[in-house]
Structures are given as C-alpha cells and as structure tokens.
Amino acid sequence: MCGIAGGIVNSRSLMTRATLERMLHAIEHRGPDGHGTCEFAAASGHRVLLGHRRLAIIDPVGGKQPMLDNEAQLALTFNGEIYNFRELREELKVCGYRFERDSDTEVLLRAYQQWGEKCVEKLRGMFAFAIWDGRNQKLFMARDRFGEKPLFLLEDAEGVHFASEIKALLQLPRAKPDVNLTAVWDFLSYRYVPGPRTLFRGIRKLPPATCLTWENGKLTERRHDTREGQAGEQDVSARGSCGGGWISQGSVPAVELHGIESEDRHAIVRGSIVHDPLRSRRGHRAERDTECDGWSQEAQWGPQVHAA
Fold this sequence. Notes:
This protein is of the alpha+beta class. It folds into two domains: 221 residues, Aminohydrolase, N-terminal nucleophile (Ntn) domain (Glutamine Phosphoribosylpyrophosphate, subunit 1, domain 1); 58 residues, no CATH class. It is 28% helix and 24% strand. The chain has ten helices and twelve strands. The protein is globular and about 55 Å long. About 18% of the residues have low confidence.
C-alpha cells in the first residue's frame, strides 16, 4: 500500500510544495519507507505538483517515486501493483525501450510513453496513478477496473487536487468542505457511501475503470476496460493476479491465511482456475458433513487439479 497526492493549480492557488508535504504526512501510514515530491510549470501558467508515499515491495532501491524522465518530459506517481508488468516490459523492449530497474513503476511510465492513455487497456492489476505529460501539457489519472486502489478528487476554481485519502485533501489551504448530508444518509442506510459521493461536499471518488485527463484547463472523463475481451473473462481478476507468477513473497501465505482450499490455491498458482466458486475451509467442511457417502471433494478432485 502506497499513497499519492498532488494537483494542477492556477496562479491564484495557495497550494505549494509545503502544502504537498503536509498532504503526504497525513497519509504517512500508507508508505512509511519514504516519500518524494516534484513540481512543474505548465505553459498555461498552471503549476503541477506530484507527491508519493512509498511502501517498498517491488525493487526497493530502484522504484522511488515520483518517477521522472526529463527527456520524455514525463513524471509518474503511482499506487498499486501491475501484475503483468514483466510481460509488458518484454513487449516494450521489442519497441526499443531499455529498462534500468526491476520495477512495475518504470514499466507503467514506458507504457504511457509508448501507448499514451490507451496504456490502461493493457494493464492487469490494481492501481491509481497520475502522470504529468509535459510534451502534451496534460495531466492523466486512472483507476483500476474494480476500484481496488482509491483516488479522491477535489475540484474548485483554482484547479484539480487528488489524493489516496480524503484526509490529505483536508490539508489544502482552503475552507474545510461541508458535510454531505445525502452521503450521511447513505452511510446510515447502507453502512457505506456509494461512489462517487463522499461524506464531504466537493470531494468525490474517481469511479473504478475511469480515466481523468486535464488538458488546456478542461477536464474529460472516460471509462476504460482492462479486460482483453477473450473467453474466460470472468477469471481475469483471479488469474491476472498470479498468471505471471507470484510477484511478492507474501502472496501464498496470504492465500493460506484466508482459508482457500489447497487444490484451489494450487490451481490459481498454476493458472488453471477451476470453474466452481472458491471455497473457504469452513464452507468446504460443511459440504463434507452434508454428503451422505462421506466422499471428500478434495480427495475426488485434488489429484486432477494437481495434475493440470
């Protein structure tokens, strides 16, 4: 878990680099391993500020953010994990790109450099990120298909501000937003606030599978789809998270802790998802208790799955 924050603001804004530091401090718990900031001047007179709090998992040394390429005039702040970054890196190598790090962040930066906004259609993973594209003078933000990684927005007359948590946006030098009573009613009714609303007026969530682009002072928003459109799309979320191999060493213990049965876990790791819903240990035992012949489904299907 990392955290991002930043914005693109006009000359009237009181947001400074020090403001960005306070925003990052408010979400320090999301990234205790380090932080970074950068600032750029847009041709329109706007200022672009990007910040990042880092939890170092992939490439602890080389994956520092915001990640910059001064020659390409790109800057990226990114929260999440790109599960297929190794496959994308090989594809980008064919296009002539060279990589200096073993980092999904660098792959995402080069993917945008090669494919522009369409890069999100190639990503499998969980992500929320912002890229400043100096050559095209635009700020591009995107959130993953299922909305696993949060991204909150505050838009006003001074510009667009974003952060992984609302508490970071509350550090901006402006009047505190009023409570959104409609969202309070939602919370009391459903015990959560359906997006894009939040508990604060003027602060909203960027919806899942959505891109936001600032260009020439105008905002455009569109939905994207990270699926490849092939058969078996219902298995993308499970298979995509491990189809290229476990990226971090903590993945398998986490699966064990959540109680997924051994044959299901083996099938996921191998990439051959079984069509039955994943069963918890408790649920699987209940199935066995109700079977008259006492035949264990694990004993029945386990050898076939392990042989897959």
